[in-house]
C-alpha cells in the first residue's frame, strides 16, 4: 500500500491545504488522478483545467501552491505552457506529468524551469506515490527559498543602519554592488552612486598613490590569500578633498557569488594629531643643516616635512616649495618610483632600516644617482614618519659604468677570453670560453692552469710560446688542440698578450681564443673535394668523354663504356665519329668543325650512337671546346623518352576518339585544347570552339557554379561536380564534370572530362518523385500512429487508475481482485506493444553516425534502477556506424538476462577482430542459457518463453538489417546466453 507523506506536509504547512492545479486534455486522467491523490493525502485541494488557455484563466483569479501539467495537449503543449508561465515571472512550482519518454522531454523541461518530471506510465501505485511526494517536496523547497530571502532582508536592514561605512565589491569585472548610508556620508556620494560604481568609479574615491595598494589587497582577498586585517589609505571625496580612512575587509557570498565586504572608518582627525608631532625638534634640524649629506624627514603620507640645506642645494628646491605639501616620491625618477614606494611601505610596516639606490630628479629636471638610508619615526609605539640620509654617488656610478661596459664587451665577444697570472693560472673567463670548453660554471675553470685545457701533445709548444711572450713582451699567435670538459678535442687559435705594470714588468696575461674547428674542416673538405672530383667523373651516371683536338678519345668514364658496350681500353684512342650512326655523321662533323674556332662554346644536340652489338642508342650530346683545343662531352641516354613520345602519339589518337568531351583550359577558362566530341556534341565547328572560353558553354543557371568549382580544383587538385551546358542551338545539355589540375610546359592548366548525363538525370527525377510519394505516405502513417498512441495511452492510464481504486475498495473479494489484476496486466502488455510500435516506426529513420559502443552500453545500464546484475563493459573506444537504437539493443539484452536468466549474476560485453577487417560484438551472461529447441525461434516475431511481448529480439534482428550486420546465438545449453553480432567492415 502507498505511504501517506503527511509528516512532510506538516513540516511545510501544518494542517493547511495544498492547492493544486492539474492541466490535462483527457478528462478521464484528470478525474482518476484527483481521486487517487486525495486518497493518498487529504490535504490536497485539486482544481482542473483541460487546456493551457483555461489554466491561465484560473491562475489569473485563483491562488495555487503547485501546477501539474501533461506534455502532449492540443494548441499548446506542456513545455509551451511552462515557457509562457516563466516568461510572466510566475515562479509557481511546476511538475510535468506525462507518458512521453524521459529522454525526450526531461532536459528541456528542467532547462525551462520545471521543478520535477514524473512519468505517468508504469505501476499506478508507484506513479502516484512519486507524484504526491514530488508535489510536497517541490513546495517545501520553494518555501525554504522564501525564508532565506526574508533572512537576507533582515541582514540588509542591519547593514543599512550601521554607523560604519559598509560596501560590497565583486570581481570579474570589479564593481561595487552595495553601499550603506554611512558609506555615502564618508565619501560625499549617495549610497546608490557608490553601490553602482565600476572599477573606474571606485578608483576615483582613492588617492592615486594608494590605488595600486588597495586593488592588490582586493585581488589577494578575492583569491583567498591571507592579508592584514586592516589598512589605512587616503580617500578622495566627491568635492575633491582628501580624507584618511581605515579599512577592514573580508570575503563573503553575495547573490550566489564570492564578494569582498569592506568596513570603512574616517580617521582624518587622528592623522592630523600625528602630523603635529613632526613639527618639533628644532635643535635637531639646526645640527643636520651643517652636514655635507642630504637629510630629510617625511610623514606617513610621504610628504616632506623637513630637508636640510644640503638637500635644498642638491635638489634645487626651496623651503617654500616644501611647505606646500611636497611629496617625497616626486624626487624619485619614474622608473624607480614603484620600487621606492614598495620599500617605504616595508619600512612603515616595522623594518628598522632601509638602504637603497635610486635616481633623483632635481627641480630643473636633471638627474643624479643617490644612495638612501632611512629609519622610521616612532611615537606612542606607532610609526608616524621616517628620517633619511641621501648620499650623491655620481662619481662612483660613473666609474662603475665604465667597468661594466668593459666587462660587457668581453662577455659579448664571440671569442673566448681568459685572463690569468704570469704563472699561467686563470683568474677570469668569459661565457664564450665556458661554452667553447663545455663548462657550466666559471668556478670550474678559475684557479686552474691554462695547460689543463690544451691537448697533452701540444703542451710543450704552448709552454714555449708562453715563455717567448714573457721574455720579449710581444704578443704570440698560434694554433693548438683544445680540450673540452668532457675530454673531446677541438682546434683553436690563441692570441696571447702580456699585461705589464708601469715599469713594464709582467703581471698577467690575456688569451683571446677562437674555435677554428670548422675552418679546419673546410680546409680538409677542400682537399678531399679535389680527390673526389676525379672519382665522381669516373663513376658519374652520365657518359663522359674527353677528346684531343684531333677528335680521338683521351678519357672515358665507366658510364660511357656501359652505354656503348666497350671496355675502357677499347674506347681510348677511338675517334668519336667511329661510334656515331652513319645517318648522324654529317651533323656531327658540322658540330666538330664549328668548335675549331670557338672556345668554351656549348652545344646540345640529339644523336644516335652505335653500340658494340650493332644496336643504336638515342642520346642527348652536350659538348664544349676548352681553351687547349680539347673537347669534353656528356651523353644522356634518352631511349625511354623516345619511347614515351611514341606512347604520347597514341594517347593523342585516343584523346580524339573519346566519346566524352575533353577540355584542357587555363584557370581563367580560356580553352587550350579539346577533342572532337567536345565541339560536335554541342553543334560547334572546330574553329569556333578554338576561340571560346569554357564559361561560354555554361547555361545562365550554372555560370555561378563554375567559380566555386574552379576554386575547389585549385585548392584540392581535383573536383567532381554537375553542371548544365548550353549548345549552339540553345538546347540544354546536363553534364557531369571531372576536373583535375595538371602541369603542362610550365603552365598550370585544368583537364576537364565532361560526360553527358541526360539519361541519368531523367532516371534521378523519376526516382525522386517516387521517393517523395513514399515519404508522404510514411509521414501520414507516423502522425496517425503517434496521435493514436498518445490518446490510447491516456485511456489505458485511466483504466489502470480505476482498477487500482476498485482493488482498494474490494480488497477482500479475491475473484474481483484477480480479474482486476488481469486487466492491469492486459494494459501493461498493450503499453509494451505501443512502445514497440513507436520504436519500430523510427527504425531506419535516424542518420547513421559513428557511435562509441562502450558509451552506448553505459547509457543502457543507466536506464535500470537498482540493477543487481554486474555488467562488465570492455567496449570503450570502439566506434561503429549506428544510431541511438544501439543503446536500446543493449538494454533489451540486459533486461532479458535480468528477467529470464534465473540464476544470472553477471553479464559481459566485449569485442574481437573479425576476418578481412571486420568486428564481432559479443554479449554473454552466466544465467540458465537458452534451450536447443528455442534457439531457432529466438528472433521470430512474437516468440516468448512467457511474460513478454516477444518483440525484443525480433526488433534487434530488424536493427541488424538496417545496420547491415548479422546476429546469432552461440551459447551451449545451460551455460548462459551468448549473442554474437558480426559487423562486416570496421570503421577506420
What does it look like?
The chain folds into 8 domains: 6-151, Response regulator (Rossmann fold, 3-Layer(aba) Sandwich), CATH 3.40.50; 161-266, Beta-Lactamase; 274-397, PAS domain (Beta-Lactamase, 2-Layer Sandwich); 413-521, 2-Layer Sandwich (Beta-Lactamase), CATH 3.30.450.20; 543-627, PAS domain (Beta-Lactamase); 643-756, 2-Layer Sandwich (Beta-Lactamase), CATH 3.30.450; 762-824; 843-983, Histidine kinase-like ATPase, C-terminal domain (Heat Shock Protein 90). It has 32 helices and 37 strands. The strands form 8 sheets. The chain has a 5-stranded parallel beta sheet, with helices on both faces. Strands 7-6-10-9-8 form a 5-stranded antiparallel beta sheet. Strands 12-11-15-14-13 form a 5-stranded antiparallel beta sheet, with helices on both faces. Mean pLDDT is 82; it is low at 1-14.
Please give the structural blueprint.
Elements: H1 6-13, E1 18-23, H2 27-40, E2 44-49, H3 52-61, E3 66-69, H4 78-87, E4 94-98, H5 102-111, E5 116-119, H6 124-160, E6 165-170, E7 175-179, H7 181-187, H8 191-194, H9 199-204, H10 208-222, E8 230-236, E9 242-254, E10 257-266, H11 268-277, H12 282-288, E11 294-299, E12 304-307, H13 309-315, H14 319-323, H15 334-348, E13 354-361, E14 367-379, E15 382-392, H16 394-412, E16 416-420, E17 426-429, H17 431-437, H18 459-472, E18 476-483, E19 489-500, E20 506-515, H19 517-539, E21 543-547, E22 553-556, H20 558-564, H21 568-571, H22 585-595, E23 602-610, E24 616-625, E25 631-637, H23 639-657, E26 661-666, E27 671-674, H24 676-680, H25 686-690, H26 703-716, E28 718-726, E29 732-744, E30 747-756, H27 758-809, H28 814-842, E31 849-852, H29 853-862, E32 870-873, E33 879-882, H30 885-900, E34 906-914, E35 918-925, H31 932-935, H32 952-963, E36 966-969, E37 978-983
Amino acid at each position: 500500500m502507498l505511504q501517506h507523506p503527511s509528516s512532510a506536509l506538516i513540516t511545510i504547512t501544518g494542517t493547511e491545504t495544498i492547492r493544486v492545479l492539474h492541466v490535462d486534455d483527457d478528462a478521464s486522467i484528470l478525474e482518476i488522478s484527483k481521486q487517487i491523490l486525495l486518497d493518498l493525502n487529504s490535504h490536497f485541494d485539486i482544481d482542473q483545467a483541460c487546456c493551457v488557455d483555461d489554466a491561465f484563466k484560473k491562475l489569473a483569479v485563483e491562488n495555487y501552491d503547485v501546477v501539474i501539467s501533461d506534455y502532449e495537449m492540443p494548441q499548446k503543449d506542456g513545455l509551451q505552457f511552462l515557457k509562457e508561465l516563466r516568461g510572466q515571472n510566475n515562479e509557481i512550482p511546476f511538475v510535468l506529468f506525462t507518458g512521453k519518454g524521459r529522454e525526450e522531454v526531461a532536459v528541456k523541461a528542467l532547462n525551462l524551469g520545471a521543478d520535477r518530471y514524473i512519468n505517468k506510465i508504469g505501476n499506478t501505485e508507484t506513479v502516484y506515490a512519486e507524484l504526491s511526494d514530488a508535489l510536497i517536496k517541490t513546495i517545501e523547497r520553494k518555501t525554504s527559498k522564501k525564508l532565506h530571502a526574508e533572512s537576507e532582508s533582515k541582514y540588509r536592514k542591519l547593514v543599512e543602519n550601521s554607523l560604519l561605512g559598509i560596501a560590497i565589491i565583486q570581481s570579474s569585472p570589479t564593481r561595487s554592488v552595495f553601499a550603506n548610508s554611512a558609506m555615502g556620508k564618508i565619501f560625499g556620494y549617495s549610497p546608490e552612486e557608490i553601490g553602482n560604481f565600476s572599477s573606474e568609479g571606485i578608483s576615483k574615491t582613492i588617492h592615486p598613490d594608494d590605488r595600486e595598494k588597495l586593488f592588490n589587497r582586493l585581488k589577494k582577498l578575492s583569491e583567498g590569500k591571507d592579508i592584514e586585517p586592516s589598512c589605512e589609505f587616503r580617500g578622495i571625496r566627491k568635492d575633491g578633498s582628501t580624507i584618511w580612512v581605515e579599512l577592514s575587509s573580508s570575503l563573503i557570498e553575495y547573490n550566489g557569488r564570492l564578494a569582498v565586504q569592506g568596513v570603512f572608518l574616517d580617521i582624518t582627525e587622528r592623522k592630523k594629531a600625528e602630523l603635529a608631532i613632526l613639527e618639533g625638534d628644532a635643535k635637531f634640524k639646526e645640527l643636520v643643516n651643517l652636514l655635507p649629506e642630504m637629510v630629510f624627514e617625511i610623514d606617513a603620507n610621504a610628504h616632506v616635512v623637513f630637508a636640510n640645506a644640503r638637500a635644498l642645494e642638491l635638489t634645487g628646491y626651496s623651503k617654500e616649495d616644501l611647505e606646500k605639501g611636497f611629496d617625497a616620491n616626486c624626487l624619485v625618477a619614474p622608473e624607480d618610483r614603484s620600487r621606492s614606494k614598495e620599500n617605504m611601505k616595508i619600512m612603515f610596516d616595522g623594518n628598522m632600516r632601509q638602504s637603497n639606490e635610486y635616481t633623483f630628479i632635481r627641480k630643473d629636471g636633471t638627474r643624479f644617482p643617490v644612495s638612501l638610508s632611512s629609519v622610521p619615526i616612532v611615537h606612542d609605539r606607532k610609526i608616524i614618519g621616517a628620517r633619511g640620509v641621501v648620499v650623491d654617488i655620481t662619481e662612483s656610478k660613473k666609474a662603475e659604468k665604465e667597468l661594466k661596459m668593459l666587462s660587457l664587451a668581453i662577455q659579448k665577444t664571440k671569442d673566448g677570453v681568459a685572463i690569468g697570472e704570469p704563472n699561467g693560472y686563470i683568474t677570469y673567463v668569459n661565457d664564450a670560453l665556458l661554452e667553447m670548453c663545455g663548462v657550466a660554471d666559471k668556478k670550474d675553470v678559475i684557479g686552474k692552469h691554462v695547460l689543463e685545457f690544451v691537448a697533452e701533445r701540444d703542451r710543450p709548444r704552448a709552454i714555449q710560446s708562453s715563455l717567448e711572450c714573457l721574455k720579449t713582451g710581444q704578443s704570440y699567435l698560434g694554433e693548438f688542440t683544445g680540450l673540452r670538459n668532457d675530454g673531446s678535442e677541438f682546434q683553436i687559435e690563441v692570441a696571447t698578450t702580456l699585461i705589464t705594470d708601469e715599469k713594464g714588468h709582467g703581471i698577467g696575461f690575456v688569451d683571446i681564443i677562437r674555435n677554428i674547428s670548422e675552418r679546419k674542416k673546410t680546409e680538409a673538405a677542400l682537399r678531399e673535394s679535389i680527390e673526389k672530383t676525379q672519382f665522381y667523373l669516373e663513376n658519374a651516371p652520365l657518359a663522359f668523354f674527353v677528346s684531343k683536338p684531333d677528335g680521338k678519345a683521351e678519357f672515358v668514364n665507366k658510364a660511357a663504356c656501359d652505354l656503348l658496350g666497350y671496355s675502357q681500353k677499347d674506347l681510348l684512342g677511338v675517334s668519336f665519329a667511329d661510334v656515331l650512326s652513319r645517318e648522324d655523321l654529317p651533323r656531327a662533323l658540322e658540330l666538330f668543325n664549328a668548335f675549331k674556332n670557338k672556345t668554351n662554346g656549348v652545344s646540345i644536340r640529339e644523336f644516335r650512337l652505335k653500340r658494340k652489338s650493332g644496336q643504336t642508342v638515342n642520346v642527348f650530346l652536350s659538348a664544349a671546346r676548352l681553351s687547349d683545343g680539347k673537347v669534353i662531352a656528356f651523353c644522356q641516354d634518352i631511349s625511354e623518352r623516345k619511347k614515351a613520345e611514341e606512347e604520347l602519339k597514341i594517347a593523342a589518337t585516343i584523346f580524339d576518339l573519346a566519346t566524352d568531351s575533353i577540355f584542357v583550359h587555363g584557370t581563367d577558362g580560356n580553352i587550350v585544347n579539346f577533342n572532337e566530341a567536345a565541339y560536335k556534341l554541342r553543334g560547334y565547328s572546330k574553329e569556333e570552339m578554338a576561340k571560346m572560353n569554357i564559361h561560354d558553354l555554361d547555361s545562365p543557371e550554372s555560370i555561378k557554379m563554375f567559380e566555386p568549382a574552379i576554386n575547389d580544383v585549385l585548392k584540392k587538385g581535383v573536383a567532381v561536380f554537375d553542371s548544365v551546358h548550353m549548345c549552339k542551338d540553345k538546347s540544354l545539355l546536363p553534364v557531369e564534370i571531372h576536373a583535375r589540375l595538371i602541369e603542362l610546359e610550365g603552365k598550370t592548366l585544368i583537364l576537364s572530362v565532361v560526360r553527358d548525363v541526360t539519361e541519368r538525370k531523367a532516371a534521378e527525377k523519376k526516382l525522386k518523385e517516387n521517393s517523395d510519394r513514399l515519404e508522404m505516405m510514411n509521414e501520414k502513417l507516423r502522425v496517425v500512429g503517434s496521435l493514436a498512441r498518445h490518446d490510447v495511452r491516456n485511456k489505458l492510464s485511466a483504466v489502470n487508475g480505476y482498477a487500482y481504486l476498485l482493488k482498494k475498495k474490494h480488497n477482500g473479494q479475491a475473484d474481483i481482485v484477480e480479474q482486476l489484476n488481469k486487466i492491469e496486466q492486459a494494459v501493461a502488455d498493450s503499453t509494451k506493444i505501443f512502445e514497440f510500435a513507436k520504436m519500430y516506426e523510427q527504425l531506419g529513420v535516424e542518420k547513421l553516425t559513428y557511435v562509441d559502443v562502450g558509451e552506448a552500453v553505459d547509457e543502457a545500464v543507466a536506464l535500470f534502477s537498482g540493477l543487481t546484475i554486474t555488467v562488465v563493459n570492455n567496449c570503450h573506444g570502439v566506434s561503429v556506424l549506428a544510431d541511438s537504437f544501439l543503446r536500446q539493443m543493449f538494454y533489451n539484452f540486459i533486461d532479458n538476462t535480468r528477467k529470464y536468466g534465473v540464476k544470472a549474476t553477471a553479464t559481459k560485453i566485449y569485442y574481437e577482430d573479425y576476418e578481412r577487417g571486420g568486428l564481432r560484438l559479443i554479449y554473454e551472461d552466466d544465467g540458465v542459457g537458452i534451450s536447443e529447441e528455442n534457439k531457432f525461434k529466438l528472433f521470430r516475431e512474437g516468440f516468448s518463453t512467457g511474460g513478454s511481448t516477444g518483440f525484443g529480439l525480433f526488433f534487434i534482428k530488424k536493427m541488424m538489417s538496417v545496420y547491415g550486420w548479422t546476429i546469432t546465438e552461440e551459447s551451449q545449453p545451460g551455460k548462459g546466453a551468448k549473442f554474437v553480432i558480426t559487423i562486416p567492415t570496421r570503421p577506420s
